[in-house]
Amino acid sequence: MQQPASAPYYYPTPAPGPMPQPQPMQTTANINITIPQTPMPQPPPQPMQTPANFNITIPQMPMSGPDSMMTTCTSCKVNVSTKTDKELTNSGWIWAICMFFFGIWPCCLLPCFMSSCNSTTHKCPNCNAFIGRYSP
Questions:
Q1: Count of CB atoms within 10 A of residue 124's CB?
Q2: Which residues in 82-129 belong to E strands, given as ranges?
Q3: DSSP code of 58?
């Protein structure tokens, strides 16, 4: 079943002439605010307190290098020549693995012999206490 075609609907056009202007809204409010003029009370001055003198001793870690050195062990309080252990750092391992996988396998052991890829751990030979670590 077909529906009959409807005629187009035309909207009416406004009449010619001046358009009425909207009127602005006018509001008034009377607000009275009073600020008190009384001064704020000041706290009484505190007497000067003299700081207490404390003597704090902080043990200094000795300057460590890649070689064994003479120092006093902080654990057993003995003057010793440190025992050193060298180990490959994480960046050294990464360089070695990258050289192996990218076809430079003859050079992959090179970071093991470079001082910049090794860290040195200093220990006491008497009590085996950790004294310091040197990383270039």
A1: 20
A2: 83-88, 118-123
A3: -
Give 77-89 as a DSSP string: --EEEPEEEEEE-
For tokens 């187009």, the residue is 8
> pLDDT (tens digit, 9 = 90+) per residue, 34-65?
666 666 677 777 776 666 666 665 555 556 68
Q: In what order do the strands lie in the sheet with 83-88?
A: 83-88, 118-123, 130-134
Dist CA 135 CA 86 (whole Å): 10
Q: What are phi and psi of 118, to 5 degrees?
A: -120, 145
Measure the CA–CA gap between 40 and 44, rounded to whole angstroms. Answer: 13
Let me know: does 121 contact 133? Beta carbons within 8 Å.
Answer: yes
CA–CA separation, 118 and 134 (whole Å)? 9
What is this structure's pTM? Answer: 0.50
- Using only the alpha carbons of the chain, give its radius of gyration: 44
